[in-house]
Amino acid sequence: MDFSNIGFKGTFRDYQAKVLQNSAAHLRDGKIHIVAAPGSGKTILGLELIRRLNAPAIVLSPSVTIRQQWGERFTSSFLPDGADAQGYISYDLK
Which domain holds residue 60? Predict the structure, then answer.
């Protein structure tokens, strides 16, 4: 999957930009754990980190609602208008 042709269409919040600026240091061991309040932009931050890594990722969520939120945020905030997310996202559990 090539993520180089997509990007975040908005503006990152200051603290999101700081995490992203330091993401290489945070990911030295191949892991990152983000803890923040609801509504603080963790989904957007996670999607941008996945995009920057340009590698497949598994996102685990506590509910179908949150799972759908990730897909909706990716489509609305990263893909060009009218683009199909099917080539990027799978909800298949197999």
Answer: 1-94
